[in-house]
Amino acid sequence: MISMMAAIVLNGFRALRRDRGALILSFILPIAFFSIFATIFGGMGGGTPRVSVLVVDEDGSTVSERLVRALLQEPSLAASTHSETKKGEPFPPSYTAASAEAAVKLGDAPAALIIPKGFGAHPIALGPGADGAPIRLLHDSSDPVAAQMVAGILQKVVMTSLPDAMAKVGMQYFERASGGLTPQQRESIESAMSRPPNAATQSGPPRDTGFVAIEVRDVVGEKKQNSMIAFYAAGIGVMFLLFTASAAGGTLLDEAESGALDRILSARVSMTTLLAGKMAYSALLASAQLTLMFLWGAAVFHLDLFTHLPGFIVMTAATSFAVASFGMLLASVSHTRAQQAAISTLIILTMSALGGSMFPRFLMPEAMQKVGLLTFNAWAIDGYTKVFWRDEPILQLAPQVAVLIGAGMVLFLIARRFARRWEYA
Amino acid sequence: MASPTLAIPLRIDSVVKRFGDLIAVSGVSLDVRERACLGLLGPNGAGKSTLIRSIAGRIRLDSGSIRVFGQPAGSAAARAELGWVPQELALYPLLTCRENLEAFGRYQGLRGTGLRDGIAWCLQWAALADRAGATVKTLSGGMRRRLNMAAGLVHRPRMVLLDEPTVGVDPQSRNRIFEMVEELRGQGTTVIYTTHYMEEAERLCDSIAIIDHGHVIAHGTKEELVEQSFGRRSDVLMRFAPTVENAAAWAAARGGTLQEGADGVAHFAVAQPTDIAALLDAAARDGLEVIDVVLRRPNLESVFLQLTGRDLRQ
Question: How many domains is chain B built from?
Fold first, then answer.
């Protein structure tokens, strides 16, 4: 009995060794996924990713300038007061409240801090009925974490960069409550407060209680009913589209194995016509899938599909074209259906993880966000987000559409090159 | 260049095709006249399918040329005149009979009335009119074979390549396929028919090319082939007991051949039936135990054995 079982075990391993597809699925795929998710969620060893925030100083006081400096030096923030300097172009102007709000709406940063006029006179707002204008925090609620992080970090930065202002307000409260200070006490306190602050060397845990008043406003999703539906519809949709395109492309391999491909090519159909026909079918199928998914989103989750129809059509056409060509390429590089299934699963799940179909890219470390741009998922999701979340005009979809169509054309040409092996024996 | 209407249907000239070290087709030359049915007879792996695929334009030749009605094989003009029925069931399993015929008709450039007429003719020819709406996977093996043939003819070509169309079908379906081929011939279609069943070649083909190891080793009508190999002699099959060890040398010394892989069966070409007695006497004298002896009129199988020492079905 033992030797029979040993024979069965041996046969299993022998068969596995010769089935490359199964071998990849069994060993390489789990390791690949483990590595990808460890990289995404482990932050590549770099800790929590920095939050981008735009800073606008409308006050221009000494106090507000100190706060801006501290915000720029804060290691957990990627703060900037002006847009990126491009090579050969003049230094860009500082953000204004309007340009910062526009930048947040465009998705350049998830949040902006506007320090209002008069802030320097009353920077600290302890207790109810405090004086002074609140700092405005503008944010994009598609990134639910960024606003909370910026608000918390702002309190910490105020505490470490403006200790004198904080102490001054604290003393006013103390005097009001205690009935006044002796001259010696006042002199000692004023002497301490006149020393320059050393914010860079001070640090401490963020406090729950606020030292500055913050007025938070969602500038992108304030009128939206359901913020993340378009994101998920695009993310999940693209992932399944890739699987569908892979299966549709796989019919080429089925036909090659059954002899139908030979028969078709012996008729008046050229390889280019055949590939283009298969790709057109795959793209139409993908479009139908996406349309159904967004219609479902509109019917059940109140996704505002019908007012964004032009953008939806453009993005769906570009995405469907790209995934269809991807399916053709997978089929043409594979030699068997099993091999194609293994390669497809590996690549699609990897692309989906990196490209934000499973987990939003803006929550990934910056390096991973850049790697994600190598996937169709990222470009498609970005495009749909522009349409449904940021209400951007169609022209703003140009980068996404260009990348998806361009990559689709390149993949199709590569697929055509590989398909030469089917043309003649 | 010859006019397609006047050129002979098929001219194969010194065709060579190699797959790595294997020479699948080695210097084959054949001409096929209008309305003829040429049988390509040979065992599995002889090179029949490679030759058929070359005619269909699916193989890049190492040397030589093939012309279909005067046009190079694989050219658009040649494809239009040619219907290829591959050995495999090259169909869409989830489509119906009619949908399959429509698809392959469109691949041949048919539209409108031409397509409808082609489909109607195919369904009638393959006796599938009552199953036109049935998907391929619900058809019997014989029906699938017939549909596989019909899919290659929906554009009504002037020449048809049938690559072992009866593989895996029951005798009744095989007869139906024979009738379909005969009907095609009756309508003037030129047919190239590959098989390793000599009875199919004998029934359907008016000339036969015997292929082995990529070579055409004999070509002619059945009668010519038998005459070339046997003349007026008869074929004698002599089966020896399994204990006999030197049967091959014994048969060779008397002008016979021990058939490969046939468990001690030797073939002899004898001028008179009475020559059997001399063979039996010699076997008894040399201590070779003979189990049975058969005298038969030579057929294509005898010719193949005579030429190669092997059975067609090997």
Answer: 2
Helices (H), A140-228: 144-161, 163-178, 183-194
Q: Is B108–A263 a contact, with Cβ atoms under 8 angstroms apart?
A: no
Task: Give residues 193 to 252 of B whose Cβ lies within 8 Å of A.
Answer: none
Q: Which CATH number do you get for residue B44?
A: 3.40.50.300
Q: Is position B311 within any domain? A: no
Residue among B60, B84, B87 minimizing CB distance to A266: B84
- DSSP of B84-135: EE-SS--S-TTSBHHHHHHHHHHHTT--HHHHHHHHHHHHHHTT-GGGTTSB
ipTM of the complex: 0.84
Q: In which order are the strands placed within the sheet that holds B82-85?
A: B82-85, B159-163, B190-195, B37-41, B207-212, B215-220
Mean pLDDT by groups of 10 residues along chain A of 425 residues: 79 77 71 70 58 89 88 88 74 86 85 88 65 82 79 84 71 64 68 49 40 82 65 86 90 90 91 93 92 88 89 96 95 89 88 88 82 93 89 93 97 96 84
Taking each continuous run of H as one helix and of E as one strand, the counts in chain B are 11, 14
**Of the residues B225, B255, B272, the one at which a domain ends:** B225
Judge whether A263 is closer than 8 Å to chain B, CB to CB.
yes
Q: Taking the model in full, what pTM does it have?
A: 0.75
Compute the CA torsion angle B110, B114, B119, B122 (nearest 10 deg): -100
CB contact under 8 A, B80 and A268: yes
- Domain range holding B88? 10-225
In this structure, are B290 and B157 located in the same domain? no
Q: Which of residues 90-109 of B touch A (CB under 8 A)?
A: 90-92, 104, 107-109
Give the DSSP H/E element, type plus range, for residue A243. Answer: helix A229-258
Q: φ and ψ at A327, to 5 degrees?
A: -60, -40
Chain B residues within 8 A of A258 when measuring between CB atoms: 88-91
Domain boundary among B201, B225, B249: B225
Q: For the domain made up of A51-162+197-218, give the CATH fold.
A: abc type-2 transporter like fold (3.40.1710)
Ranges for all domains in chain A classified under CATH 3.40.1710: 51-162+197-218
Testing the interface with B: which of A258, A262, A266, A270 to mutate, by most B Cβ within 10 A? Answer: A266
